[in-house]
Amino acid sequence: MRKLLISFLTFFAPCALSAQVQTLTSPDGDLELKFGIAEGGVPQYELSYKSTEVIRPSRLGLVLRGEGAKPEFGSDVSATSDAAQRVGSLCGGFEIADTAVSSFDQTWQPVWGEEANIRNHYNELAVTLRQPHSGRQMVLRFRLFDDGLGFRYEFPRQPGLVYFVIADECTEFAMTGDHTAWWIPGDYDTQEYDYTRSRLSQIRRYMDGSITGNLSQTSFSPTGVQTSLQLKTDDGIYLNLHEAALVNYPAMHLDLDDSRMVFTSHLTPDPNGDKAYMQTPCTTPWRTVIVSDDARDILASRLTLNLNEPCKIEDTSWIKPCKYVGVWWEMITGKSSWSYTDDLQSVHLDTDDLSQVRPNGRHGATTDNVKRYIDFAAEHGFDAVLVEGWNIGWEDWFGNMKDYVFDFVTPYPDFDVEEIRRYAASKGVKMIMHHETSGSVRNYERHLDAAYRFMNEHDYDAVKSGYVGNIIPKGNNHYNQWMVNHYQYAVEKAAEHRIMVNAHEAVRPTGLCRTWPNLIGNESARGTEYQAFGGSKPSHVSVLPFTRLIGGPMDYTPGIFEQEISKINPGNHSHANCTIANQLGIYVVMSSPLQMAADLPETYERFSDAFQFIKDVALDWSESRYLEAEPGEYITVARKSKDSGQWFVGNVTGERSHLSQIVFDFLDPGKTYIATIYADAPDADYRTNPQAYTVRRVLVTSKSRLRQPAVAGGGYAVSLREVTDKAQMRGLKRL
Amino acid sequence: MRKLLISFLTFFAPCALSAQVQTLTSPDGDLELKFGIAEGGVPQYELSYKSTEVIRPSRLGLVLRGEGAKPEFGSDVSATSDAAQRVGSLCGGFEIADTAVSSFDQTWQPVWGEEANIRNHYNELAVTLRQPHSGRQMVLRFRLFDDGLGFRYEFPRQPGLVYFVIADECTEFAMTGDHTAWWIPGDYDTQEYDYTRSRLSQIRRYMDGSITGNLSQTSFSPTGVQTSLQLKTDDGIYLNLHEAALVNYPAMHLDLDDSRMVFTSHLTPDPNGDKAYMQTPCTTPWRTVIVSDDARDILASRLTLNLNEPCKIEDTSWIKPCKYVGVWWEMITGKSSWSYTDDLQSVHLDTDDLSQVRPNGRHGATTDNVKRYIDFAAEHGFDAVLVEGWNIGWEDWFGNMKDYVFDFVTPYPDFDVEEIRRYAASKGVKMIMHHETSGSVRNYERHLDAAYRFMNEHDYDAVKSGYVGNIIPKGNNHYNQWMVNHYQYAVEKAAEHRIMVNAHEAVRPTGLCRTWPNLIGNESARGTEYQAFGGSKPSHVSVLPFTRLIGGPMDYTPGIFEQEISKINPGNHSHANCTIANQLGIYVVMSSPLQMAADLPETYERFSDAFQFIKDVALDWSESRYLEAEPGEYITVARKSKDSGQWFVGNVTGERSHLSQIVFDFLDPGKTYIATIYADAPDADYRTNPQAYTVRRVLVTSKSRLRQPAVAGGGYAVSLREVTDKAQMRGLKRL
């Protein structure tokens, strides 16, 4: 309490506006927001959780182009007034014109997701600020949920503010100490980094080593990190910083002043260095702080979805979760190729005749090979088959800033679109389209209508899109306002065509799948492909749910059963840092309406007992229970299928081995279930013995307890099936 | 001859490669090109005309990104070797691997233009250059016509050069003296400048004063000028520097080293500062030098068209010259407005309901007003009516970098597309579509297909497009490679829809209308609109045919009969610096398949005798004779209608009054014609008495001579009709 008092003094004491301090509490009373105007008319907020300060007094504001520079780092709050008066802009000189407090409590149903019903329950404070010297108004809207805070800037229609350019957003998140963070380097072009766990004070030291190579990357600061950022205080409070509803605005990064432990928003710039072009009435995305002293609450939070607009698609009947296999891992590992020929050093799509060149004999997307995957999908109950490398252009598809790189409608000579459509339909399997843009976004938009029409005509109802490499038009980065608008355009256009989108290398999600549930997946993080490019940290998948997944599901493409990539392609010596049981656990832990079984069909044939879990696991859930969680260490989740009512449990384990102790109290009391437990064998090791697993079947009830060890980089998965006939129990022991 | 010898010594003497000097002469022998490799392996050329040097030894080459800097200005030719070896790249280190000489003589027929038959006659030298140290090859292809030189860089398919980035093109045009030039400031975004006539050495002095305001402009050098650049030596030789076939490459400007009088190519950069992204096999556009000691030959040159590819549109029957009026001048003068309402400070196209706002009562594009123009067009035999301001979005259409500024398909509530279509069709009049992009090019491309389909559905077969303001995506300029590709895309897409394009504020034309004759017009210069924005120089239209029109026709929109703009809009005190007779002369002098009568219908009613010439004049020609010409002073042209065989003569006069003395020897011998001569009255003055003109009818034969004065900013026009019945001659005197 002493600490809180001090901060108050620092915060409000120097100014004469203390009467204007606004206080807002969360519905359960655990979170308290204070908002006020500090000296110089600078808006400030702070946040406490269970009477402990979690966000110290932090300034809010925006610098408009032509109205001064961003306030300098290093100026403390008490020195704000001068700076704010000097910069003018929308950083200071404000007074409170109006405040409005309200409450909201509504339950809504997502088209797909972790729960059938989501409660959107918050108390709201809307503060209308006015600058007497400019007459301009700005609204700060705070929504305080039981699990965190969302706030945004709103710019009402007004004569003095019609069009404006945001040169900098100066939203601060002042930390209360040198917290532990799970972070990836701030970057305008990629999120495909392994997470580093460190103290905030150590970010600077570890930054260089954390910036691993990527085909397109632009870092901006030695202390810049990306959101969603997971933090943990020494008091055991978990904080998660991110944003919600990123529409028509650049993606936000966080730049740390590590002398004061203050994060400031850092927006992705356009080629001119400007951040956002705005037209009133308009708003920024929501800035979010999820807070709890229980890490499981971070995973259970629906704050990000709740801060997005309701669904804008009227008829959503065509949006369906999808489990799929694909002609993909064989190219990722280097066993086969996306390209059709090795004879062309470069391709001119408008003049080259691909039917006249010599095939390289390693092309993955041949009609015969695709049929093999269709057969496999049909046999094992998969919904769909993805095929990459089906369309002309892959001979020189990246690294050349090539404008007309793909046309998205012309197959290679050995890929018979119509025959594949017919064959897949006859087997009850859908085909998934692939649109790699190579970052050539104008070219994609020019072809988008035709490409989507091609999909409609050939019965593809989902597309995996990709944005590998630097963006064309040049000077743009993957996460600036212009590109954010592009991703949104592609999703909305797809909805017109009743097409589901799974965009890779696009900006990380911010809950927009509530509004546009045809956005069924994103990559936007380091995916499984890196297991074939040198490997990812074994803790990676026990961090992702705390970071990348806060904004929406990931097409992580799990299911790697053969960790020695050289067994697929002798020339590739990468090792996948995971056990088979870990891979199974992912299907439950990393909920997604789109789940791939990424490995080769022939690999799955070798491990048919483990593969059974992938075949069984559901994609869409009516309930989710977060049983255990610690970032980078372990996550255990139980989920109930929306379709069948069947429960599944998954665990992923990170840097160190973990012993789970879970209770099946989520099961219906009085019923008995057969639990099939897929687990690391005692001698399993993600480096040396990753394929050692056990499958056992036991009987459980809602009172059963499971003690289940998992090795580092390991995990386990459980499927639970209600006993409907006593004969099913024969030979099975109770847990 | 002494001069030539000296230059040879300077050029070739210092190097040991003189055996490799290649000489090429024009078919008529007047032009001689010498090409050789100077010390350091630097390609060089020079050009002489009738044994007089017109281009001194000039280096050729390109700097590739990552391969050194552009050679510094100020280094003379003999110092080249070090620089070239230092920079490497494609600037030096070459040897000649092969040379090929050939001739070409073919006559082709343009779809429309100044002549029915165009002779394409040249001698060609193709030099294959090789860099021993890199193994790379580059071809320099020279085509020498009787009227000038074209040359370009070609990059064959080769292992060592697949994709490359041009950081700078270092093509030199070394002048032989301090010539007189008619120039506008080099600029990445606009050509809408008045021409300055000065010595080369004076460009620097006059630059600042020549850069007048524009909504988008980016100058780059105190001695940077645009092409086509018209020059005149003190010996009376006219030189014209430009380019032909600008496709997939940035527009070229010229930067003058005024200590040595050497122009070097300056390409419009992309947002990263790069110039061009190339993929072999590929070429640059042609660099052109038109040469003559008779200014009329510059106007008569077809070199630019001849260096373009033949027509790529198979069926051109739908491409038709067009004379039109439009709901336009009334907005340009400020009498009426493009916008529908004054109530919105900004428009959100996706949410605002324009049917709910209050009309401002000054909207030009109302159904009733359009019908008035349709009636006028039908009555006076015009083909079409252009209407600007018909579609929603004009309330805040420029200056805001607004992305979604227009949708190109939604009319204002008072513009009834279907009724107008019906009414125009009933009167035999076509409607011309208007697509103002406001520079928001992504938005235009997103809507382009739908916008063209809308045109097809509503019977519009031509579109005036516009690119006012800065380009979105930001960081791009109007003339860089990315934008050049856009303009080309819009034209080719239009051809698919059988739509003719008249693009304003687009890159200046380079003869592409030969290949894509649906590109029936461009603005790309200071057009008539500036007469309502403060006025243009009275000499402007006697410079344009030597500069802007070298690349293709201009939609100059002449026909201003009311020079006091305040008589149209009392608040606008601009004065059009031209006489009525000057305006009539333009229709013949500035040949275009698209000609507007730009003034208001009610103005034309007041001058119906003069208006008769606009009604009569043809748009498409079988023959053109350039009777008199001097840049900025006077141009007199006679042309024969391709349709009717009727001859027309036009004159524009520039800075000073002019007395034409022309002979009608182009007429059929033995025939008598009635000449209707529209001329400045003796007391006409473009400032104080611009509406003073005379119309007289006389009889002429092929032996008649006309002495016709024109005042400064004046001119005259003559229509010639063959006497088919002696009764027609009654009361008419012989000239």
Describe this structure in words.
Chain A is an alpha+beta fold and 735 residues long. In chain A, 17% of the residues lie in helices and 31% in strands. Chain A contains 14 helices and 37 strands. In chain A, the strands form seven sheets. In chain A, strands 6, 7, 8, 9, 12, 13, 15, 16, 20 and 21 form a ten-stranded antiparallel beta sheet that branches. The first copy, chain A, has a seven-stranded parallel beta sheet with strand order 27-26-25-24-23-22-28. In chain A, strands 29-30-31-36-33-34-37 form a seven-stranded mixed beta sheet. The longest helix of chain A has 17 residues, at 441-457.
Flag low-confidence runs of chain A.
1-19, 73-87
Rg over C-alpha atoms of chain A, rounded to the nearest angstrom: 26 Å
Task: Give the largest chain-chain interface (CB within 8 Å).
Answer: A-B, 32 and 32 residues
How is the main sheet of chain A built?
10 strands, antiparallel
Q: What structural class do the secondary elements of chain A suggest? A: alpha+beta
Assembly context of the chains: homodimer
List the topology elements.
Two copies of one chain form a homodimer.
Chain A lengths: L1 H11 L9 E4 L5 E8 L3 E8 L2 E8 L2 E3 L15 H8 L7 E14 L9 E13 L6 E9 L2 E8 L7 E7 L2 E3 L5 E4 L12 E4 L3 H8 L13 E3 L2 E4 L5 E7 L7 E6 L4 E6 L8 E4 L2 E2 L2 E7 L2 H6 L2 H4 L15 E6 L1 H4 L34 H14 L3 E4 L29 H10 L3 E7 L4 H17 L2 E7 L14 H16 L3 E5 L14 E4 L17 H4 L36 H10 L4 E3 L4 H6 L1 H9 L4 E10 L3 E8 L5 E7 L4 E6 L9 E8 L12 E8 L4 E6 L4 E8 L10 E2 L1
Parallel strand pairs in A: 22-23, 22-28, 23-24, 24-25, 25-26, 26-27, 34-37
Antiparallel strand pairs in A: 1-2, 2-3, 3-4, 5-10, 6-7, 7-8, 8-9, 9-20, 9-21, 10-19, 11-18, 12-13, 12-15, 14-17, 15-16, 16-21, 17-18, 29-30, 30-31, 31-36, 32-35, 33-34, 33-36
Helix pairs in contact in A: 7-8, 9-10, 12-14
